[in-house]
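Record passed on underneath.
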Amino acid sequence: MKTILLKLKGPMQSWGTSSHFETRTTDYYPSKSAVIGIIAASLGYKRDNDEKIQKLNELNFAIRIDQPGVLAKDYHSAMSCRFPRVSDVKDNKKYVTNRYYMEDAIFVVAISHADDQWIDSIYHALQNPYFTPFMGRRSCPLPADFIITVTNKDALDALQNLEWQAAKWYKRKHRNYCADIYADKDLILQGIATTRNDRVVSFAQKERKFGPRFETRTSKDFTNGRDDASNSNSLDFYESI
């Protein structure tokens, strides 16, 4: 089994799973559907290619919160108008929308599957994306160090052994830190499973559909800015893809 490790960081990110109309919320950490969207865009899947996109739900998914972000509300205005556009102000309405983001957050995503060839093809697609992927919104580009590595460990082992990815200033401020890890229910046998509405049914522009997914939480302790595990627990990097 191979696991791809990805880093999601930047000034702004947005990972909404329950946005409606003028209010566009964000979750506190990325959804599986959002990561599937990044993978699908990299593979060149179009939004209405439901069969190929739904297959990506079979990937094992886990995420570690290395640096919690700060919730931010963006002032954003929009205008609805009739076409052809007319000068009558009654027909052209300008209004303010509520859009939320996570500021200065860093997340590590683990994507794995028993089919190594499938993981290899996804890895290469992420390196050379067909469509431009982004972090929830087009105004939030992926970081230059988005791809961390590929390892032969499973998703949870990879996250448990990867060094802390938080910024230096955050490590200095939080000498003792416990990073939450959220994963598909099948990856963590212990703990209480909760539901999240991020199983992709369709990304079609006119009728996006998502279903429930069960996930479980665990954690990883970092002490004095370092991993608790010994240095011998380093990742077994896979470098010959």
In short: Residues 74 and 99 are 5 Å apart (CA to CA). The chain has one domain: 2-15+29-69+106-233.
